[in-house]
Amino acid sequence: MTVRETLDFSARCQGTGSRAGEMIVGPTRALFMDEISNGLDSFTTFQIVTCLQQFTHITDSTILVSLLQPAPETFDLFDDIILMAEGKIAYHGPRSYVLSSLSIAVSSAHLGKA
Description:
InterPro entries: P-loop_NTPase (IPR027417). This is ABC transporter family G domain-containing protein. Keywords: Transport. The chain has 114 residues and is of the alpha+beta class. Helix content is 43%, strand content 20%. The chain is built from four helices and four strands. The strands form two sheets. The protein has a two-stranded parallel sheet. The protein has a two-stranded antiparallel sheet with strand order 3-4. The chain is globular.
């Protein structure tokens, strides 16, 4: 989806029509953000995600952010992760379980090919 399509989808989820400026207003409190780090250095991206994390925890809302290869410090700020590979979900769950879950999946795949 394009950024505009993502914003329109987010607004529709909250019942605000296609007015992207009203995305945070509404009963569902969900914000969808696509590739917010384009053109930014890792420190600036970290600062933005830190602010988003604080906002999310204070307002008890949900923010879905797509990032391509975030720095480890930025990755550590997320509560839940959706990892995608070739257009399919490879992992969805708590950030703290990503490595163990993927290690098990890789081990199982390797044993299946032996």
